[in-house]
Specification:
2 copies of one chain form a homodimer. By secondary structure, chain A is of the alpha/beta class. Chain A has 3 domains: about 15-60, Orthogonal Bundle (434 Repressor (Amino-terminal Domain)), CATH 1.10.260; about 70-165 and about 300-330, Rossmann fold (3-Layer(aba) Sandwich), CATH 3.40.50; about 170-300, Rossmann fold (3-Layer(aba) Sandwich), CATH 3.40.50.2300. Chain A has helices at about 15-20, 25-30, 40-55, 60-65, 85-100, 115-125, 135-145, 170-180, 200-215, 230-240, 255-265, 300-315; strands at about 70-80, 100-110, 130, 150-155, 165, 185-190, 220-225, 250, 275-280, 295-300, 325-330, 330-335. Chain A binds a DNA duplex (30 and 30 nucleotides) through helix 2 and helix 4.
Chain lengths: ~350, ~350
DNA sequence: CGGCAAATTGACTGCGAATGCGAACAAGCA
DNA sequence: TGCTTGTTCGCATTCGCAGTCAATTTGCCG
């Protein structure tokens, strides 16, 4: 019953095996697999034939050991990004793969896991790290000490020179607020993300700042957790606090906005956008679904992931490069979940 | 302006460096980092102190080269799984991490990419592979020839002994169909996934078989692509074909079911579930959202990912193990998108 | 305090591929 | 043909660590 194909040599095939079969030296084999090496076409043909015959593939581990590059990058991402997660991951991975780099995935369930992780990441001799999670200053110190290039994705340190790729959160919030104010909304609710999220902070602060700047009088802020349900509970908290429902709710991400919208319609029987305007941030897929058609700001994920990958790989080749922060504008998507003045779209 | 901390030694720290500082041999250092090795506590203390001082971390690459294990597993996943993707990935990664294995991520945009990928995967000397993508028989041959253990996630080959972890798709569809039939639905529409998806095939076939078994007369099948929009277009196709709307639409996944549901309500003004029942499969997050509350079958993702990881790691340690297929029952979630007889929930 | 077993330690080798260097060889020129 | 250039190839070494084996130390008992 055992269907094992016992005829093939099940052990690892090394460059020596290929060399022996082809009657050449191991160096020759090595050179044949190195693009741009000096090899005669006759040699290459012989080696390749032998390699094929044996099913030889160069051992990336051994190669890394001597070359000092693993062609591997760590992607650290906290899993609470939920809806947003696959898009980033796929984008990063595509860009990395195109340049011959593989992604080692590190998912964080809790931000505190990152400490244990960091050591591991570095053990694996990754060429670089792309971090879409919260890092503390000492953690950044630790990475820098190891001289591993890293890029923060959608977070940055104001007081610190680090590589970062960010969506301009405040700008996006400003657009949203401008549009809401212009349409005459007066009582504002804000549902922030978890307190330790810098993205949430920037968005919330950005919205708040603009609201104040434009003279909004009635603003309440409650905290959510970026999850769907906290959109609903956030709305409830806002209602409790205000004593009525606000005119507009600004959510720190789309997922909460969708939760808020659902709660408004189905729990409180409010018409959206007539009775209540809801806006989000991110531009995740479900935000475009017919039931929602959310007014939001879409992050240019593919440009951002491409930038992150470029930045990291440039720095792998040239560690001397100065840290750089790149900000990307989002794209306002008017949607239909907020009552806006005509042509308010940016 | 350069804030580079130039005081620390920026180069790699090896076990020799630690050994020199501690005044011991390199072997001693190595042993100190190997759990269960024979080392005196005095030695360990000295070495650890030196290691800490230098910021030494053992080089996993060198370790892999000699031990023949990379503590790395490839996770190959096609990105069109969209909503479902993060859950799987996080689950797999958590389980792998717990056992000290890192995931190398390979995302497929098109299933055809897998050929190019396979060579790469194997170059990286992964200890095993978890494949949530379509593999052809020759591709499986290729992997087996390399003697790399692999587990198929949610696909299996009927005629072939391979390791696989699957949700029992037909069983789930049977539950759904039973419930729909019991509630008196008569005209059925099925929106399948892409033709080359085995998951879609099993679900569609499963539903069809059960429908016929129970004597359903009116059944139409149209093809979708697992995406949100194809739920709507699928419904349109069904209406065109039938000349009216069906009583129930069975979608090969949740995402399409949600699209179908939205189209039914917002495009055709149908009441769901009164005029039309819609069921899906997967149990993704948004299916539980208030706007939808989809009737579906939830895959036990965390048990499945755990099983996949166990299977793969068992086979890394013991390559002789016979191939095994594990099937998991889903969980029927009655929801509110289908008109069901009372207490029809399994 | 001698003697023996057990525990601990260090020298050395090898994992598999890449590369500097010199040898061998081919091509170009007078 | 003899000599110079330029290619191509093999030898030997290297990457960083783990495991083997023999040497050494330690502990323990009579």
């Amino acid at each position: 019953m055992a269907s094992t194909t016992a005829e093939s040599p099940r052990q690892r095939v090394t460059s020596y095996d290929v060399a022996r079969l082809a009657g050449v030296s191991q160096s020759a084999v090595s050179r044949c697999f190195k693009p741009g090496a000096s090899v005669s076409r006759k040699m290459r043909a012989r080696v390749m034939k032998a390699a094929e015959q044996l099913g030889y593939q160069p051992n990336a581990i051994a190669r890394s050991l001597i070359s000092g590059r693993s062609n591997t990058a760590a992607v650290v991402i906290s899993s609470n990004t939920a809806l947003y997660f696959p898009e980033i991951l796929v984008g990063l991975n595509r860009n990395l793969a195109q340049r011959g780099v593989r992604a080692l995935l590190f998912t964080l369930e809790q931000e505190s896991d990152i400490d244990r992780l960091l050591d591991q990441v570095l053990q694996y001799q990754v060429d670089g790290m792309i971090v879409a999670a919260r890092l503390s200053a000492p953690q950044i110190d630790a990475i820098e000490r190891r001289a591993v290039p890293f890029v923060l994705y959608n977070r940055s340190f104001r007081d610190r020179q680090v590589n970062a790729v960010c969506c301009d959160q405040s700008e996006g919030e400003r657009w949203l607020v401008d549009a809401l104010i212009e349409a005459g909304h007066q009582r504002f609710g804000i549902i922030s993300g978890p307190g330790d999220s810098s993205v949430s902070m920037e968005r919330t602060e950005g919205a708040l700042a603009r609201l104040r700047e434009l003279g909004a009088k009635h603003i309440s802020v409650v905290e959510g957790d970026f999850g769907y349900h906290s959109g609903g509970t956030g709305l409830k908290k806002l209602r409790d606090r205000i004593g009525a429902h606000p005119d507009a709710v600004i959510c720190a991400n789309d997922t909460m906005a969708l939760g808020c919208l659902d709660a408004a319609r189905h729990e409180y029987g409010l018409a959206v956008p007539e009775d209540l305007s809801v806006v989000g941030f991110d531009g995740v897929g479900p935000a475009r679904w017919t039931s929602y058609n959310l007014t939001t700001v879409r992050q240019p994920v593919s440009r951002m992931t491409e930038a992150a990958v470029s930045m990291i790989l440039e720095r792998v080749d040239n560690p001397q490069l100065q840290p750089e922060k790149r900000f990307f504008s989002g794209e306002m998507i008017p949607g239909n979940s907020a009552r806006l003045a005509p042509a308010a779209a940016r």
